[in-house]
Amino acid sequence: MAQISVTILTGFLGAGKTTLLNRVLHEAHGQKIAVIENEFGEENIDNEILVSEGREQIVQMSNGCICCTIREDLRATLHDLAEKRRSGELDFERVIIETTGLADPGPVVQTFFMDEEAAESFLVDSIITVVDAKHAQTQLDERQEARRQVGFADQIFLTKTDLVSEAQVQALIHRLKHMNPRAPIEAVHFGEVPLERVLDLRGFNLNARLDIDPDFLREEEPHVHDEHCGHDHGHGHCHHEEHGHHGHDHGHDHEHGEHCKHPHHHHHDDDVKSFVYRARRPFDPVKLEDFLGAIVNVYGPKMLRYKGVLDMQGTDRKVIFQGVHQLMGSDLGPAWKDGEERVSKMVFIGIDLPRDILEQGLDQSQV
């Protein structure tokens, strides 16, 4: 049986996760989706149809979706769902997990990598974070959970942008991109999101693309490894092509480029930060593995997401690696093309990561 695709939906209290989820559940998309609801807040999914009598309630909806509310451990629920699917008791093709507004998505993701049975049956597709434009600045200032949710995201949806000024939206986008330059940011209204923006985003696929917001790269230029990057501006532009399928981002990108220079955007010194590292010399596989292993051992709990496309000595193929907390995986990607400049690129997103130690260790891991 093919693995079941899993989308993790996160976001702070009141951001609009349930609105988005209800839209997905009621749309005639012809897909059979099982939803694991892990929030007993004011507005559960369609309260009328979900009456939680026991530990778990499963409701089959008219469009083939299944809803479960759970009060037990996620692992047990996943095992139970997989078993019911194997036995033919339940029929579904994918799972959406709605985390509680105060949840750190890390442990949820790790369940799928650490638990053998879950890893066999399920495949994490992406983490989607819903951010409330009206309250986000305060939430990000005051709550680390909100900052972590942004750091983990593969896609960020901004809700309630109609309740704030354009300048406030741009300031928020600027802040979010410094926390997570990997995730495209899109404003949405009342959960009206095309399904292809929610499902099959392949955020955890080991692919040879490393989407980093181009404006973020341009801002980083002066203080990212001058000796490695003297003429990197060309790369900034190639990202626009890579971002082609996120065309919605571009309106924001260019405008926010103009705002970037203003110092008033920089008064948020968030503990969740990101930085991009590039190298023009190939990595020594043994040195790099030793260094990353040591870093993950020490700083793993603070490393939210990290990914790289690397030029490794001894192979003509790109080496792709990514990780969540202490869990790291790598794979061989496509071959470097003739004439392609072999630049290794990495992005690290984490809490108070020691950038100088990481950069020094990566410098020393090159041939």
Order of helices and strands: EHEEEHEHHEHHEHEHHHHEHEEEEH
Low-confidence stretches: 40-56, 222-266
| Rg (C-alpha, Å) | 21 Å
Largest sheet: 8 strands, mixed
Main structural class = alpha/beta
CATH architecture of the largest domain: 3-Layer(aba) Sandwich
Range of helix content: 25-40%
Number of helices: 13
What average pLDDT do the residues reach? Answer: 79
Mass-distribution shape: globular
Number of structural domains:
2
| Named CATH topology of the largest domain | Rossmann fold
Under CATH at level 1, the class of the largest domain stands as: Alpha Beta
Distance between the termini: 43 Å
Strand content: 15-25%
Query: How would you name the CATH homologous superfamily of the largest domain?
Result: P-loop containing nucleotide triphosphate hydrolases
Strand order of the largest sheet: 3-4-2-5-1-6-7-8
Secondary structure tally: strands: 13
Summary tags:
P-loop_NTPase; nucleotide binding; CobW/HypB/UreG_nucleotide-bd; hydrolase
How is this structure best described in words?
- One of its GO terms (molecular function) is hydrolase activity.
- InterPro entries: CobW-likC_sf, CobW-like_C, CobW/HypB/UreG_nucleotide-bd, P-loop_NTPase, Zinc-reg_GTPase_activator.
- Pfam families: cobW, CobW_C.
- It contains 13 helices and 13 strands.
- The protein has 367 residues and is α/β, with parallel strands linked by helices.
- It folds into 2 domains: 4-197, 3-Layer(aba) Sandwich (Rossmann fold); 272-365, CobW-like, C-terminal domain (Hypothetical Protein Yjia, Chain: A,domain 2).
- The strands form 2 sheets. An 8-stranded mixed sheet has the order 3-4-2-5-1-6-7-8, sandwiched between helices.
- A hairpin with a 2-residue loop joins strand 11 (317-324) and strand 12.
- The radius of gyration is 21 Å and the shape is globular.
- 40% of the residues are buried.
- The model is unreliable at 40-56 and 222-266 (pLDDT under 50).
